[in-house]
């Protein structure tokens, strides 16, 4: 089932939590809503679940406007951050509970609960109580309970935030595989950019109630529309440097404090426009003094296994980059860096918009 938001806004007293949301999610797609705390992720999910009503605009499930449809009539499965399992019930009864509410006869609902339990590999735990399960198993019970009604839409609200780092990565894979197998349209709220990048077909990046960009992980990473998106995705984050543009005959000079370089690109902006130069840490290379564009002093070295993450300063300006493990660079060394000119970003200093 595809989902469409048409100019949806949600206001709480005088606070606009969501403004003018427009997007379509395709049938079978896995979409993440990603953004900082308070950006409106949960509000969006609640409107889909029917727990909040939009103040303005329409939400469509397929061709049908569902603004006023009761939550129970939406055929949605939902998994919350706290799994909200019933502690006194067995796994079997927890999973079968949504069917019991629908008054499905016992034999049928247990049959379906067992089938769903097999899907999430819980068939050997059906008689246990939630307290006798690990965190990952409890999470799977919550997932099975959300799936037992064979919903058209699965909503996940930070479903993995209670799992430890290793389990999280395992569950990411499992959840993603299950979603592809069932071909169920899924919307997951998260503030963890790595999780969103790892799982989503597309990510909607929200800030202050507005979508900043809605795109595939690859596109978001390579072509961020603005500084907000560029800063939000990527760990360690993109380096940002102040500069200005000076037009040349068939290109331009990017001029910043203590550096300048020529770029064979032309932008339709006034001469001396102030810009923010964006360079990802992997797009900087240590080079000889003669070839260096930036000159910096190393202030920190982090060993990450195959490579090292270095922090350095150019005057006041911090800059981070990676080097291979065999590079012999020490704390306090002066180094010279050259950016991969194919991969740099130029943002308007004024609006933050990507100008390339
Ligand atoms: P978090 O990651 O912290 O959960 P979020 O992106 O899910 O944040 P929302 O919970 O959707 O954010 O909240 C968006 C904005 O709306 C916030 O500024 C919040 O304070 C406000 N808000 C949310 N629910 C209500 C409510 N019931 N009444 C008033 N304001 C609300």
Query: Radius of gyration in whole Å, from Cα?
Result: 25 Å
Low-confidence runs (pLDDT<50, min 5 residues)? none
Please tally the helical runs, counting DSSP H or I stretches of 4 or more residues.
8
The CATH superfamily of the largest domain is P-loop containing nucleotide triphosphate hydrolases
Widest sheet: strand ordering: 6-7-8-3-9-10
The average pLDDT value, as a whole number, equals 93
Helix content: 10-25%
CATH topology of the largest domain: Rossmann fold
What's the number of domains? Answer: 2
Task: Please tell me what the overall shape is.
Answer: elongated
Strand content: 35-45%
Which sheet architecture does the biggest sheet show?
A: 6 strands, mixed
| Series of H and E elements | EEEHEEEHHHEHEHEEHHEEEEEEEEEE
CATH class placement of the largest domain: Alpha Beta
Question: What separation lies between the terminal Cα atoms?
Answer: 36 Å
Return the structural class: alpha+beta
The CATH architecture assignment of the largest domain turns out to be 3-Layer(aba) Sandwich
The molecules bound to the chains, other than polymers, are: adenosine-5'-triphosphate
In oligomeric terms, what are we looking at? single chain
Tally the beta strands: 20
GO molecular function: ABC-type transporter activity; ATP binding; ATP hydrolysis activity
Keywords: ATP-binding, Nucleotide-binding, Transport
GO cellular component, one term: ATP-binding cassette (ABC) transporter complex, substrate-binding subunit-containing
InterPro entries: AAA+_ATPase, ABC_transporter-like_ATP-bd, ABC_transporter-like_CS, ABC_transpr_MalK-like, ABC_transpr_MalK/UgpC-like, Mo/tungstate-bd_C_term_dom, NA-bd_OB-fold, P-loop_NTPase
């Amino acid at each position: 089932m595809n989902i469409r938001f048409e100019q949806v806004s949600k206001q709480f007293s005088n606070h606009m939590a969501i403004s003018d949301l427009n997007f379509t999610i395709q049938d079978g797609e896995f979409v993440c809503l990603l953004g900082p705390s308070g950006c409106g992720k949960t509000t969006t999910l609640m409107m889909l679940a029917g727990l909040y009503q939009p103040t303005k605009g329409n939400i469509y499930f397929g061709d049908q406007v569902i603004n006023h449809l009761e939550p129970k009539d939406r055929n949605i499965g939902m998994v919350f951050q706290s799994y909200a399992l019933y502690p006194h019930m067995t796994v079997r009864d927890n999973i079968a509970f949504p069917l019991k509410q629908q008054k499905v006869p016992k034999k049928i609902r247990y049959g379906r609960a067992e089938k769903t339990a097999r899907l999430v590999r819980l068939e050997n735990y059906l008689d246990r109580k939630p307290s006798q399960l690990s965190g990952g198993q409890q999470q799977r019970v919550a997932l099975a309970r959300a799936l037992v009604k064979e919903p058209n839409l699965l909503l996940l609200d930070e479903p993995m935030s209670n799992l430890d780092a290793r389990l999280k990565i395992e569950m990411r894979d499992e959840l993603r595989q299950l979603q592809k197998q069932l071909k169920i349209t899924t919307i997951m709220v998260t503030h963890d950019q790595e999780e969103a990048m790892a799982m989503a077909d597309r990510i909607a990046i929200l800030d202050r109630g507005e979508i900043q960009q809605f795109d595939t992980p690859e596109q978001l990473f390579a072509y961020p529309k603005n500084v907000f998106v560029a800063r939000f995705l990527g760990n360690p984050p993109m380096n940002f440097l102040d500069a200005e543009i000076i037009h040349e005959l068939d290109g331009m000079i990017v001029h910043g404090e203590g550096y300048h370089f020529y770029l064979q690109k032309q932008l339709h902006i006034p001469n001396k426009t102030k810009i923010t130069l964006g360079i990802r840490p992997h797009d900087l290379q240590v080079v000889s003094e003669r070839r260096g564009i930036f000159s910096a002093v190393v202030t920190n070295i982090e060993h990450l296994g195959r490579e090292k993450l270095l922090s350095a300063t150019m005057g006041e300006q911090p800059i981070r980059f990676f080097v291979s493990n065999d590079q012999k660079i020490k704390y306090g060394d002066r180094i010279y860096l050259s950016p991969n000119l194919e991969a740099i970003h130029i943002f308007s200093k004024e609006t933050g918009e990507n100008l390339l």
